[in-house]
């Protein structure tokens, strides 16, 4: 899991994975909300990946990605934004270790937003984000309606 997360992204130019691993027993059993609260102190972070029990037990090793995007819901006027206040955007998604660097980079560059990652995971048979740069397969031509 560590090796796959830290592996550089290959392509026209290799990009070094900018990951920082924390291995500390005090974090065992931490919830997503607890990790978000702790990580929110660092304004430079946009996403945190946790190797929780699900990641450790699954053959895919899907890390829990937590969105640290700014919560501006407190300042929203309910007259205009009640739907957003009532249904906040998702804050977590599962990501295979091989996609950690691409997810982080694309979030940093604003190529995708967290909601798009959640949609990608929902479309995946295993419910994980694999490669945010992959082009979806064309569904082919639409069937011709009968006469």
Write the layout of secondary structure elements.
Blueprint: H1 2-6, H2 32-39, E1 47-50, H3 53-57, E2 63-67, H4 78-86, E3 92-95, H5 100-108, H6 114-123
Antiparallel strand pairs: 1-2, 2-3
Main attributes of the structure:
147 residues; alpha+beta; 3 strands
How does this model look, in words?
The chain is of the alpha+beta class. 31% of the residues lie in helices and 9% in strands. It has six helices and three strands, in the order H-H-E-H-E-H-E-H-H. Strands 1-2-3 form a three-stranded antiparallel β-sheet.
User: Helix fraction?
Assistant: 25-40%
Gross morphology is globular
Q: What is the H/E string?
A: HHEHEHEHH
Question: How far apart are the termini?
Answer: 55 Å
Beta-strand content: 5-15%
**Topology, number of strands:** 3
Q: Which structural class fits the helix and strand makeup?
A: alpha+beta
Q: Kindly report the average pLDDT value.
A: 77
- Over all CA atoms, what is the radius of gyration? 18 Å
* Biggest β-sheet description: 3 strands, antiparallel
Assembly state (oligomeric): single chain
The order of strands across the largest sheet is 1-2-3
Brief sketch in words of this structure:
This protein has 147 residues and is α+β, with helices and mostly antiparallel strands. It has helices at residues 2-6, 32-39, 53-57, 78-86, 100-108, 114-123, and strands at residues 47-50, 63-67, 92-95. The chain has a 3-stranded antiparallel sheet with strand order 1-2-3.
């Amino acid at each position: 899991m560590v090796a796959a997360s830290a592996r550089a992204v290959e392509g026209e130019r290799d990009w070094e994975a900018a990951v920082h691993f924390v291995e500390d027993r005090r974090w065992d059993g931490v919830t997503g909300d607890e990790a978000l609260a702790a990580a929110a102190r660092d304004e430079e972070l946009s996403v945190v990946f946790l190797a929780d029990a699900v990641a450790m037990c699954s053959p895919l090793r899907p890390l829990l990605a937590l969105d640290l995007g700014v919560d501006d819901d407190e300042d929203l006027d309910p007259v205009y934004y009640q739907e957003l206040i009532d249904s906040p955007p998702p804050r977590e998604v599962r990501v295979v270790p091989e996609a950690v660097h691409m997810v982080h980079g694309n979030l940093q560059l604003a190529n995708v937003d967290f909601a798009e990652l959640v949609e990608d995971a929902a479309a995946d048979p295993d419910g994980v984000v694999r490669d945010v740069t992959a082009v979806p397969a064309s569904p082919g031509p639409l069937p011709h309606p009968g006469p």
